Amino acid sequence: MTTAHKLVPLLDGDLTHKVVELLNAIPGIKTLSELVAIDPVKLTPSTRIDYLTALERQTAWLQALMQRAIIAVAGNEPSVANGEDVFFGVDEAEREDVSTALRLSAGTAQSRIDVARTLVNYLPNTCSALATGDISLAHANVIAKETAAAIRDGLTEFQIFEVEQRAIAHAEFHTPAQVANQVRTSLARIAPETFEDTVARARDTRRVSCYNDSDGMSTVVAILPAADAQVVMNAIESFIRLTGAENNAANSIGAKDVRSTDMKRADALTAIAAASLSASPVTPHRRPIAINVTIDLPTLLGLAENPGQLAGYGAIPASVARELASDGKWKRFVTDPQTGNLLDYGRESYEPPQALKDFLIARDRTCRFPGCRRSAALSDLDHAKSWEEGGSTSAENLGALCRRHHRLKTHDGWSVTSHGDGSCTWISPLGKKFFTPARSIHDAV
Question: Where is each HNH nuclease domain found (predicted)?
């Protein structure tokens, strides 16, 4: 005769200890079963975050199994080759098997199959990192999608390994979109000629389209080279800042501007286009809006072909970076030859001088909150330790924060500690720590 055992609920302290233990446990059925048995509502606010992170690691483990299951159904290679290109062929019955099993469209199912084949056949370290919960499925997807074409073009096993290692390390502190950018940068360095050809081919697909929508609206889509897109967006932001200052002066005695940022951008684009139409005659001109490009000296001189970094986008071919650099005004920034990090220096006033502002924008490149990609040029330069509390106006204590995350730090209980190399550590109101690494000019953000 078996004896029924009554489950004894864990106390709050025991639950917290148990969740931390499961967070650090190897993903698997046993760990998942123990997590399922815990009601997250009964946890303390801080422990709920650990519980969520632990579940995400289990999800990654399950998704690693899913990739193998998809390959088991679809096979290691496409059933119908695309000419001589077996890697990017298509599947017939196998694709429909996956689409019906997972309730996906045929196109989405084919994409899932392509990603699974890339991961299982060519990216073993990414698969391992996914299975152990070190990266999420979203991170694994972007690594697979960004490397697929390069693998098809003959990337060697050693090169694949190098790309994987950099991407997996980058994923520890960065979002999938940031990892995708990092992979593109790595590929641009490893195979610059292939990268150059790919960008040149893509440039020929540039276009602007207009689609009529309902309710008196239309959608304008512009597919542009990255540098040209930055010119357009910088022009829009510059127009908003200019008209915003004028509106603030006018609205001091009138109604406040209640438009959202998206509304302002849409109105700015229309106003710029209207002004262009009214200008006569239209004459060719050089780029009127400044864009930021980082390029190393050997590449600038034509002695190397390392990719440049276009602020707000990422890696661009050396030839494009040289072309943009020849059409701009230069400021000299000194970098650490080992790390590629911009070097620090200090100032003694509350308001940063222009040279320090330029330095910080070039160093940080984006807002320093984890995962935020808002351009540093469009962000506030904030004292990590406030001036009132003795914080200095120096590169060590200053950093770029977008307006949203600046408010989060000032009013919502988040704090940040800035480090000498430009990295910083954030602490949430619940005491959770998040590290933002320094932005080497060799890395994407």
Answer: 355-407
The maximal CA–CA distance of the chain, rounded, in angstroms, is 98
Contact between 324 and 291 under an 8 Å Cβ cutoff? The reply is yes
Tokens (6 digits) for 150:
């390069």
Section 117-128 average pLDDT: 95
**337 token code pair:** 């030859």
Asked if pLDDT for residue 29 goes beyond 70, the answer is: yes
Contacting residues for 89 by C-beta, under 8 A, at least 6 apart? 77, 78, 79, 80, 81, 82
Tokens 């200019």, residue?
242
CA nearest to 237, candidates 123, 370, 40, 403:
403
Asked if 246 and 264 touch (Cβ cutoff 8 Å), the reply is no
pLDDT band at 161 (very low <50, low <70, confident <90, very high): very high
Q: Is the pLDDT of residue 221 over 50?
A: yes
Residue 235, both tokens = 């022009």
- Annotate 144-165 with DSSP letters as a single string: HHHHHHHHHTT--HHHHHHHHH
- On whether the CB atoms of residues 76 and 117 are closer than 8 A, the answer is yes
